[in-house]
Design a protein that fits this description.
InterPro entries: K_uptake_TrkA, NAD(P)-bd_dom_sf, RCK_C, RCK_C_sf, RCK_N, Trk_Ktr_HKT_K-transport. The protein is α/β, with parallel strands linked by helices and about 220 residues long. The chain has two domains: about 120 residues, NAD(P)-binding Rossmann-like Domain (Rossmann fold, 3-Layer(aba) Sandwich), CATH 3.40.50.720; about 80 residues, 2-Layer Sandwich (Alpha-Beta Plaits). It is about 25% helix and about 25% strand. Strands 3-2-1-4-5-6-7-8-11-9-10 form an eleven-stranded mixed beta sheet, with helices on both faces. Helix 3 links the parallel strand 4 and strand 5.
Length: about 220
């Protein structure tokens, strides 16, 4: 997979390193000469250019990229890069970094963004996830398809503890994608039984989040009543 990353700062370089370790082809783009540090990510391609300019993106051959990541520290730049990548080059997947949570509402398909990643929001969500049991935590928003990645740790008193995944009447527009149980990551099957303490990751429509939380958090005594 070929990935172009606009922004060769600490965030961009870190993403590039991870992708290269996983066998992907990576191009880092930055207009600041001081940001071009080939020795820090020697296996990546580097381009000194303004990612907001069509001529620069032509030089980067963006049409050959499977993914573009707008990872600069400037939300305006990230939006422009996302829009150009999607509308001018037809890049299948565009991921954008949101620096200011107040701008998050802009990072949607209208600006070419498929996935918006807000670092402050993600850090807040991870803190909530670490201390919350029985509460739904929103981890990430997917702009295309109007869905969120959400997490809930199944509380011990939940009526669904011990219930098979296939026997649960899940809300519409929700999908259980992963069960994290201790040190194990499980791909759920219909026969798997839910256990208290399981971290459940769902892709869900925002309108279904409250219904999903109510279903998972309902207490045993509530059911018996």
């Amino acid at each position: 997979m070929r990935v172009a990353i606009a922004g060769a700062g600490a965030v961009g370089r870190s993403i590039a390193g991870e992708l290269l370790e996983n066998g992907h082809e990576v191009l880092l783009i930055d207009k600041a000469p001081t940001a071009i540090s080939v020795e820090r990510v020697p296996l990546a391609e580097w381009l000194l250019a303004d990612a907001c300019e069509i001529t620069s993106l032509d030089e980067a051959a963006l049409q050959r990229c499977n993914v573009v990541i707008a990872a600069t520290g400037d939300d305006k730049v990230n939006l422009v890069v996302s829009l150009l990548a999607k509308t001018e080059y037809g890049v299948p997947r565009v991921v954008a970094r949101v620096n200011n949570p107040k701008n998050e509402w802009l990072f949607n398909e209208s600006w070419g963004v498929d996935v918006a990643v807000s670092t402050p929001r993600l850090m807040s969500a991870l803190v909530e996830e670490a201390v919350s049991v029985g509460d739904l935590v929103r981890l990430m928003r997917f702009s295309q398809g109007d869905a969120n990645l959400v997490e809930l740790t199944l509380p011990p008193e939940s009526a669904l503890a011990g219930t098979r995944v296939g026997d649960v009447d899940w809300p519409d527009d929700t999908s259980l994608v992963t069960i994290i149980r201790g040190n194990r990551v499980l791909t759920p099957s219909k026969e798997d039984a839910l256990e208290a303490g399981d971290e459940l990751l769902f892709v869900a429509a925002p309108a279904r989040e409250e219904q999903l939380e109510d279903l998972l958090s309902v207490r045993r005594e509530d059911v018996s009543d």
